Amino acid sequence: MIDGIKSELAGLRDQLVRWRRHLHAHPELSFRETGTVRYAVEQLRAEGIEVRDGLARLTPDSVGTGAIALVRGTRAPSERCFAIRADLDALPIMEEGKPEYCSTVPGVMHACGHDAHTAMVLGAGIALHRMRDQWSGTVLLVLQPGEEKEPGGASLLVKEGVFNDPKPTGILGQHVTPELAVGKLGFRSGPFMAAADELYLTVKGRGGHAGSRPKLLDPILIAANLLPKLYAEAHAVVPAGEPMVISFGKFIANGATNIIPEVATIDGTLRTFNEELRKRLHELLPRVAAQVANEMGGEIELRIVKGSPVVKNDPELTARIRAVAVELVGAANVVDMDIRMGAEDFAYYTHVMPGCFFRLGTGNPAKPGTQSGLHTAAFDIDEEAMTLGAAMMAAGALGELH
Fold first, then answer.
1. For residues 204 and 207, what is the distance between their CA atoms, to the nearest angstrom?
2. Sorting pLDDT into bands at 50, 70 and 90, what band is 366?
3. 155-188 pLDDT, tens per residue?
């Protein structure tokens, strides 16, 4: 069966590149992927594949920009179902380079490879559809919006009951990875990617002319004292060897050389792998903020937005998918991955069904941009990796239907 999948996808190689480059040139931000999902659905319906769209609505009145497609094997009747997932959204980054297929939308680009993820799921689904007389069951193609923005399109699809009929026995996802060479596949069993929460600090003081400083209450000074205490107190409660990240990447005060502002806002992130530690930090951080406010005056509000949970790769499913990968590319090209402090809303799927999230090597020193990091303006992939990524998704799904 793997040879058949390879053959089908070899024939789709140029189409994979065209799909990816179209999507790359027309990126859309989270929950605005109307053109992206329409384009993907058109490719599937042109092949005669059933699609259900209008899914993953942010509000009851909003237009859902998610879809699922049902690719059905016809060899024999079977109720078995397995899901493979693609994410659709782009990022608010101004792209550099790639004159052939550079983003046509100023300030928006596919800097995380979701264009390739979508193209590969389209390729996997269409290859399986063309081979439908050779297998039984249903492969559910999940076209998911909003991976980059809370509440996460995965959480919305789960809440909408999308996976109730048909009900998949598990789900497979992948992510392009520049630090892995083309031809490599990376796996990790158990916890793989961190739970991620957003931290929003608002520090209120008493602003005015810098010459009147003794009468004022400087929110910048309060914030400058607050941040080291948050870092120190958070790390103090982390058990030895337990991974945790607290970081603040945005600080806005909007004063001037001679103006003390009224308010400073600071945005950050909290990453953990342990739900008990996560809960403890959610309780601790507001207490530290209140203590600093009491000591220095002013007001401090800390709002914590709970994000994606930990990505948990099911050990048994991951072992089976890894065995398929070895058959596909050989044991030497299947590598172990370390835990990653990055977050992924694929996590929501792994908390309601067995899931496996793997890494696809897309780095090539001979091709510019393909070793640039995710979420950077120069990010690109070696498109030769897409045939393998699509084959891995298709073969992994079929392995779960037998």
1. 9
2. very high
3. 999 999 999 999 999 999 999 999 999 999 999 9
**CATH class of domain segment(s) 195-306:** alpha beta
Would you state the pLDDT for residue 339? Answer: 96
Backbone angles phi, psi at 229, to 5 degrees: -70, -40
Whether 56 contacts 152, CB under 8 Å = no
Could you give the 3-state DSSP secondary structure of residue 251? strand
Domains 2-193+310-401 and 195-306 share a fold: no
Q: Tell me, which fold does domain 2-193+310-401 have in CATH?
A: Aminopeptidase (3.40.630)
Specify the pLDDT at position 98.
Answer: 76
Residue pair 336/156 in contact by the 8 Å Cβ criterion = no
**Strand, coil or helix: 69:** strand
Taking alpha carbons only, the member of 116, 139, 192, 115 closest to residue 358 is 192
Going from N- to C-terminal start, the domains of the chain cover 2-193+310-401, 195-306
How far lies 128's CA from each of 134, 297, 322, 374, in Å?
9, 64, 20, 30
pLDDT in tens, 325-360: 999 999 999 999 999 999 999 999 999 999 999 999
- The first and second tokens of residue 262, run together, are 């009224």
Q: Please give the Cα distance from 73 to 113 (Å, whole number).
A: 29
List C-alpha distances in Å: 261 to 65, 254, 315: 40, 6, 53
